[in-house]
From TrEMBL:
GO BP terms: bleb assembly; calcium ion transmembrane transport; membrane depolarization; organophosphate ester transport; pore complex assembly; positive regulation of cellular component organization; positive regulation of interleukin-1 beta production; regulation of transport
Membrane topology reported for the UniProt record: Multi-pass membrane protein
Domain P2X purinoreceptor 7 intracellular positions: 363-547
Name of the featured protein: P2X purinoceptor
GO molecular function, one term: ATP binding
Transmembrane residue ranges: 20-40
Swiss-Prot/TrEMBL keywords: ADP-ribosylation, Cell membrane, Disulfide bond, Glycoprotein, Ion channel, Ion transport, Ligand-gated ion channel, Lipoprotein, Membrane, Palmitate, Phosphoprotein, Receptor, Transmembrane, Transmembrane helix, Transport
Reaction catalysed by this enzyme: K(+)(in) = K(+)(out); Na(+)(in) = Na(+)(out); Ca(2+)(in) = Ca(2+)(out)
Species name: Opisthocomus hoazin (Hoatzin)
Cellular compartments annotated: Cell membrane; Membrane
Broad class of where this protein is predominantly found: membrane
């Protein structure tokens, strides 16, 4: 079996135009999302390796500085460091000497110095003596590498400010594992004398340090004094489709350390020597410089039909928002006119089918009303006078197995019709007009649910109509319907009247209610029920039930 949802079609230019507009809007939105976010491609993250080579020579402090001196290997991955400034303390020996004068090291007597104490800012261990640091200041004596390092500010301008003209070669190899594709940032025909320029030479892997800081919007001379950290970004955004191939690096630069809170980057290292007497001596360097962190990231992309179908399929559900939007528009319009819209009432009745407990409702059909009436139990007055709600009827063509009819003339059939049109016998005529009867042919009844007439207003009884005679009472029609079901039925049996009577009840319900769905709770009026019983009586005249 296949179940399909039921739709309500609204004939409205307004809502029809709104639907078209919303469908077009959703379709265009899906197209834009697919194109902008490239949902038609499968992607892979980049794996990379980086090698650097710094070149340049500088003259400062009466000495030559080459690559081996101003570049120091970093422990961090994909980083390199260039010295730009320094504080050098030469000829240090392990002995006693005055501490550098900071707040906790300044003293006035030996009592201010505690032997063996160490401060986190101190250069050594206190001996317990207070000695002259210079002509005006006294500090605690320490056992340390003497003379101790100066804690003053670094030289300005920077010692190696000429390193601005140094160059660095960046070698970057990348791999997209999903596509098994490898590429590097060095062109096959690389001109080793080129220098990177964002506009004129954007693919050259050789960079001037001054240009790097300029692209990062920093002043090299200022930053060289205390140093800093620069991010050297390499972005690989690769389209690996053969018809739109594009895979080249894009370089970017920015400063990572905070310029306002403790800016700069520095560390210390020492060079050790042996004196002729075997005593160890060292030169301490507190170096400032720029650390360059090479950050490689990127994405490789390729068209994939399955990925496209998967993403479009997931977004087709957006079309369901159109129906929701129109539902909201209909509700808002109904609320704006205080719920008095006749269109909304019809729409609501068509859209929703209320399912009630069949034991708590009854269905009634009056010959002078075009609809079926639903009445809920319990009854407080006669069924005829109880107010109910209208429900849609669904008439069906009255030519089926139970209403088999023939167009051929039949003398016996005509005689039967003549007999059916005769006045009711004493058993079927009402001895007095009931208050709830409008046709004058209903029988007295004590129970409320049996007090029902075929009409709502005064008028002719339905039992006198041609339709009732032909469709409900005609034994010719009923017998043929029985034979249609059971070709070998004995029409002369003693039980034939019971079968004809029950079939007549069904014929009436099918005729007046238009659907067998209501058969269980459809109520047959008193006049029709007694007319059928009078025509096809029971042998003992003992009838049960009324529906």
């Amino acid at each position: 079996e296949y179940d399909s949802p039921k739709y309500i079609r609204i004939q409205s230019a307004t809502y029809g135009s709104l639907k078209c507009f919303l469908y077009i809007t959703v379709a265009l939105s899906i197209c834009c999302i697919v194109i902008i976010y490239r949902l038609y491609e499968v992607t892979d993250e980049v794996n990379s390796s980086v090698r650097t080579s710094v070149k340049g020579v500088a003259y400062a402090n009466t000495r030559i500085w080459d690559t081996a001196e101003y570049t120091i290997p970093m422990q961090a991955m994909n980083s390199f460091f260039v010295i730009t400034n320094m504080i050098m303390t030469e000829n240090q020996l392990q002995q006693e000497c005055p501490e550098y004068p900071f707040a906790k090291a300044i003293c006035s007597s030996d009592k201010s110095c505690e032997k063996g104490s160490v401060d986190i800012h101190s250069n050594g261990i206190q001996t317990g003596r207070c000695v002259n640091y210079n002509a005006t200041v006294k500090t605690c004596e320490v056992t340390a590498w003497c003379p101790v390092e100066s804690m003053g500010n670094p030289p300005e301008p920077a010692v190696l400010r000429s390193s601005e003209d140094f160059t660095v070669l960046i070698k970057n190899n990348i791999l997209f594992p999903k596509f098994n594709y490898t590429v590097r940032n060095m062109p096959p025909n690389l001109n080793t004398s080129c220098t990177y320029n964002k506009k004129t030479n954007p693919l050259c892997p050789i960079f001037r340090l001054g240009d790097i800081l300029h692209e990062a919007k920093e002043n090299f001379s200022e930053m060289a004094v205390k140093g800093g950290i620069i991010a050297f970004e390499i972005n690989w955004d690769c389209n690996l489709d053969s018809w739109f191939y594009d895979c080249s690096p894009k370089y970017g630069f920015r400063r990572l350390d905070d310029k306002k809170i403790k800016p700069g980057f520095h560390f210390r290292y020492a060079r050790y020597y042996k004196r002729s007497n075997g005593e160890e001596q060292r030169t301490l360097f507190k170096v400032y410089g720029i650390r360059f962190d090479v950050l490689v990231f990127g994405t490789g992309r390729k068209f994939d039909g399955i990925e496209l179908l998967k993403n479009i399929g997931s977004m087709i559900s957006y079309f369901g928002l159109v129906a929701s939007a129109i539902e909201i528009a209909i509700c808002v319009h109904n609320c704006s006119i205080c719920g008095q819209s006749p269109f909304y009432k019809i729409y609501n009745r068509k859209k929703y089918d209320t399912v009630l407990n069949p034991r708590q409702v009854m269905y009634v059909s009056y010959v002078d009303e075009p609809h079926i009436t639903l009445i809920k139990k319990p009854l407080e007055t006669s069924l005829q006078h109880t107010q109910g709600s209208s429900v849609e009827s669904h008439p069906v063509k009255f030519c089926d197995a139970d209403s088999y009819c023939t167009s051929e003339p039949d003398m016996n059939h005509d005689n039967e019709e003549h007999e059916l049109r005769q006045p009711l016998g004493q058993g079927a005529s009402s001895p007095g007009c009931q208050k709830w009867c409008c046709c004058g042919k209903c029988q007295p009844a004590q129970k409320y649910h049996e007090q029902l007439c075929c009409r709502r207003k005064k008028g002719q009884c339905i039992t006198t109509s041609e339709g009732f005679q032909q469709l409900v009472l005609s034994s010719h029609t009923l017998k043929k319907a029985l034979l249609y079901k059971d070709p070998f039925l004995d029409l002369t049996s003693g039980d034939i009247n019971n079968q004809l009577r029950h079939l007549a009840y069904k014929q009436y319900i099918h005729w007046r209610f238009g659907s067998f769905d209501l058969e269980d709770r459809a109520v047959i009026p008193s006049c029709c029920r007694w007319k059928i019983r009078d025509t096809y009586p029971k042998a003992d005249n003992n009838y049960t039930g009324f529906e």
